[in-house]
Amino acid sequence: MTDHAELHTSARPLNGRRAIITGGTTGIGRAIAVMLAGQGVSVYICGHDAGHLEDALTQIRVVGTGDGMVTELGDPDKVRAFFDAGEAYLGGFDITVINAAVAAGGLTQMDEDALRYAIAVNFTAYLLSAHHAAHRMTPIGDMVLIGSLSAHILGPSSTVYAGIKSGIAGFSEALRRELGPKGIRVSLVEPGKVGSNMQYPDVPDDKQRAMIAAEQMLRGEDIAAGVEFLLTQPTRSVIQQIVIVPRALEGE
């Protein structure tokens, strides 16, 4: 006789878990923070604008619990301070979402200061965040890195951003192999075009709304739904990489 319990695999619940999210005040990070809070996860977020932080925490506290701080992850010492504050608030954590990023243009379109800042936020802070998380998270834990489809769609104005995101993709895959035996699952999420202030000034708000309505651009909540899927997998499995793109956008 068939044991029907063996035909299905149980989802891992989110309720009661604790999460640190970099860049959780706007866009994808904010959507993930609100989604997790609504599922019973205590969250700790950061951003570099006090108004955005206050607004995000208001939404989070409508559905759950969370706190956060204004900081600048381009400063390596402040990455450590953010994880110190998050760990103290949460009393430990088992989810880390590494998401904070800034837009970047082509190499010859950027001055040296802008280039250094993009590397500091988009690459150095990613690796430092992963380093802090790997040493502090309680197993079985989940580390989710938000990459970008830009790693695979290469153009003359995307050299810096695409180069960094390609590096994050390789780092994520190697890190999954390093941390898996230690009880930490590592997943990479690569979104296509998502409505957010990262699209400024090329795609203003009205155009973003029109593209989302036409299903040619995603909302941050669409990426959050993908992250929820990753986090609720049975502990014996890990979704190594997930690519989420708009259904109706041609050429992506």
Automatic annotation (TrEMBL):
Keywords: Oxidoreductase. This is Short-chain dehydrogenase. Pfam families: adh_short (PF00106). It comes from Sphingomonas aurantiaca. Belongs to the short-chain dehydrogenases/reductases (SDR) family. Gene3D superfamilies: NAD(P)-binding Rossmann-like Domain (3.40.50.720). PANTHER family: 5-KETO-D-GLUCONATE 5-REDUCTASE, ALCOHOL DEHYDROGENASE, PUTATIVE (AFU_ORTHOLOGUE AFUA_3G03445)-RELATED. GO terms for molecular function: oxidoreductase activity.
